[in-house]
Design goal:
The chain has about 675 residues and is α/β, with parallel strands linked by helices. Helix content is about 40%, strand content about 20%. Among the domains are: about 45-140, Nucleic acid-binding proteins (OB fold (Dihydrolipoamide Acetyltransferase, E2P)), CATH 2.40.50.140; about 245-430, 3-Layer(aba) Sandwich (Rossmann fold), CATH 3.40.50; about 440-600, Rossmann fold (3-Layer(aba) Sandwich). The structure holds adenosine-5'-diphosphate and magnesium ion.
Length: about 675
């Protein structure tokens, strides 16, 4: 049996120089080589006749050399050999540069197989430097040929030739997936899967082989994540006592939905136990996450601890502070807020009170992560709209709070399977129900010609006359795009001075000073502004129930998930709400995409559709989650395999928590090689 870990350098035909090049593409051992998968395939399964040639195509064909091989030496390093070949249907001129050995290996009157690109012109086809083999060796240049990612100095044919040394039906490596597992999930044996991914007989066998390799990658990842999570469960957490929340509830004008109750139960169970809570609340926009966080903080405070609640923007932090301090004041719970705009003096004062325990709940942006903010007895930290925080900030937070319970909230709908992987360090609660009585937001995606524009504007006026308010959002996705800002400003001027000159029109964008933003936001809340023109700074969390109209300009420039977030700014009160998605794009697909928004109000459904349409692309910056790179797997495209990988990994660890059984011997080795010392729990 070949030793797969042996250095590629000592393989015949490699040597030091090539080994260095191969190392650049990650091939250091024979194992690296055989798991260096093709990025694509070239279909050379059809043998063509010369009469069927099409200019520009690559073709495989059989033909006989029909003329003398003429050799001309053009200059020192350039010799040209040319000859005609033909089959029953026609002939074509072939030219080969240099390759002087051909003189001795090919002969007039004999039949060969050729593979190359058809060049020349429609009147006269030619072929330059094709691959040429005797006709009985046609198999060596035909079939479905792997195309590998290359590096300068290494050709595809070279990799193929190396590969054929090891990848053939004699390959006999140990399968890290047990037979039971392979049978259960219809996965191929590793040797067949490696053979088929490099040298497939047909496209179906490529799919099967890929599925097996993708499963393996994801299964290993899930096993690793699950083990890490298990070892991260800290049992030195605060054990909060159960608290009667009826006094709190009597201060809010509604009762919790069943989904909210379930989520609260999950939180309280964590808080009541010695397990350190690390929980993510995922809930669609408007599902009522804030009140759940407030209840958790209430329980912490009633237990004699302090709590902190962070939001990604000053606007949001201020809003939480204003809304919740209303309730907490009545309960005699002391709150305060620190943001980027808090003055030094003020901040010092707050920090002083905080360290003496004179503040129970501190609100703020991530400025409250700064090191000099010291709590007296911090017990719970809540982070709102967590997707806006980087992983680093998340880490910083948990570091600050050794054994402190944390709760993070997000409205970004991620399919559950994916959330389990991306947030594998967190437990997940889902609020999958909106409060009763919410009227669904009526959405219209429209092509905004002049006539439509005036109808929309009339519609807005009508609702403002009835006492409502409206948002008009302009795309300014990167807050640094000046041209977008100029366009948004121009639109604002037009709306303010012409279209809606009767009304109070405000303008909010990311480049404003925080103080200015807050003033405008509070003017809008207090109804001093009727129509708020805004860039996406209002995307998350903002809550103004009297605003019932959301108009989005150039809606085609947003992803559906972002549109859904924006739409979630309305439909928050008793009045019927509307969302108008305007586009000037003539492209049929962009209007079609926007029409999806008309038919669904469910963030999860929309996110999945968006994924299908736009592809994974930059979906929520998966990269920044610090997961390892895969050779083949793609978390989004391979969601169905990810699902079974999660299921399989869960079962495996249930049956054999430390992977000690004989059938998991190779699996454990593979995990250790791949994830090494991160896996203390498996290794004990
Ligand atoms: P999100 O989950 O998007 O952060 P919020 O927490 O801002 O949503 O809640 C949206 C609105 O719904 C708020 O005005 C909130 O007071 C209200 N709300 C929350 N829970 C309920 C409920 N159970 N019944 C009625 N209204 C609720
Ligand atoms: Mg919110």
């Amino acid at each position: 049996m070949i030793d797969l870990s042996s250095n590629i350098q000592y393989v015949k035909g490699v040597g030091e120089v090539r080994a260095k090049l191969l190392s650049k593409i990650g091939i250091n051992t024979i194992y690296d080589l055989i798991t260096y998968y093709p990025r694509n395939y070239e279909d050379r399964t059809n043998i063509k006749q010369i009469k069927d040639f099409v200019l520009g195509e690559n073709v495989l064909f059989k033909a006989t050399i029909m003329s003398k091989i003429v050799t001309r030496r053009i200059r020192k390093n350039l010799t040209i050999h040319s000859f005609f070949v033909g089959d029953e249907t026609g002939s074509i001129k072939i030219t080969v540069f240099n390759q002087n050995y051909l003189k001795n290996t090919i002969h007039e009157g004999k039949e060969y197989a050729f593979y190359g690109k058809i060049e020349g012109n429609i009147l006269r086809f030619e072929m330059n430097s094709p691959e040429i083999v005797p006709v009985d060796k046609i198999f060596s240049i035909s079939g479905i040929r792997p195309i590998y990612p290359l590096v300068k100095g290494i050709t595809n044919n070279y990799i193929i030739s190396l590969m054929t040394k090891f990848v053939n039906d004699k390959l006999n490596i140990n399968d890290i997936l047990s037979k039971q597992l392979r049978d259960k999930y219809s996965l191929e044996d590793i040797n067949k899967a490696i053979l088929d991914i490099h040298f497939p007989n047909n496209y179906d066998s490529i799919d099967k082989a890929r599925r097996r390799h993708i499963f393996e990658e994801l299964y290993l990842l899930e096993l690793a994540l699950m083990s890490i999570k298990k070892s991260n469960v800290k049992l030195n957490g605060i054990v909060f006592k159960n608290i009667d929340v009826s006094e709190f509830m009597s201060n809010i004008p509604f009762i919790l939905t069943n989904a909210q109750k379930k989520c609260l139960d999950e939180i309280l169970k964590d808080m009541n136990s010695s397990k350190v809570m690390n929980r993510l609340i995922q809930g669609d926009v408007g599902s009522g996450k804030t009140i759940i966080a407030a209840l958790a903080m209430y329980v912490a405070v009633k237990n004699g601890y302090q709590a902190a609640m962070m939001a990604p923007t000053t606007i949001l932090a201020t809003q939480h502070y204003e809304d919740l301090s209303n309730i907490f004041d009545k309960l005699n719970i002391k709150t305060d807020i620190i943001t980027g705009k808090t003055t030094k003096k003020n901040k010092k004062e707050i920090i002083g009170k905080l360290s003496k325990g004179e503040i129970d709940i501190l609100f703020g942006t991530h400025a409250i992560l700064e090191d000099n903010v010291e709590f007296n007895k911090l017990g719970l930290v809540v982070t709102d709209e967590q997707h806006r925080f980087g992983v680093k900030q998340r880490m910083k937070l948990t570091n600050k709070s050794e054994n402190i319970d944390t709760l993070v909230m997000t409205a970004t709908p991620i399919p559950r399977t994916l959330a389990l992987t991306l947030y594998s360090d967190l437990d997940i609660s889902i609020i999958d129900e909106l409060p009763k009585g919410r009227k669904p937001i009526k959405t219209n995606a429209v092509y905004a010609n002049e006539n439509m524009e005036s109808r929309i504007n009339l519609f807005i006026s009508k609702h403002i006359d009835a006492g409502r308010q409206a948002y008009i959002v302009c795309p300014l996705i990167e807050e640094s795009e000046d041209s977008d800002l100029i366009a948004a400003t121009a639109l604002y001027e037009k709306y303010k001075n012409e279209t809606f000159s009767k009304y109070n029109v405000g303008f909010l964008h990311g480049k404003m000073k925080n103080k200015e933003k807050d003033e405008i936001m509070s003017d809008f809340k207090n109804k001093k502004i009727d129509i708020l023109i805004s860039t996406t700074v209002i995307e998350v969390g903002v809550n103004v129930p009297n605003a019932t109209i959301m108009v989005i300009e150039n809606a085609e420039r947003f992803g559906l998930a972002a549109l859904h977030q924006l739409r979630g700014r309305v439909g928050r009160g008793e009045h019927e709400s509307f969302c108008i998605l305007k586009t000037q794009s003539k492209s049929k697909t962009s209007l079609e995409r926007l029409k999806i928004m008309e038919s669904s109000n469910n963030g999860f459904v929309i996110a999945e559709k968006d994924l299908e349409l736009r592809g994974p692309g930059d979906f929520f910056g998966i990269r920044q989650h610090g997961l390892p790179e895969f050779k083949l797997a793609n978390l989004l495209k391979d969601m169905s395999v990810l699902k079974i990988a999660i299921e399989a990994a869960t079962e495996t660890l249930e049956n054999d928590p430390n992977l000690e059984k004989q059938e998991n011997k190779f699996l454990k080795q593979a995990l250790n090689i791949k994830f090494g010392n991160q896996l203390d729990s498996i290794n004990n």
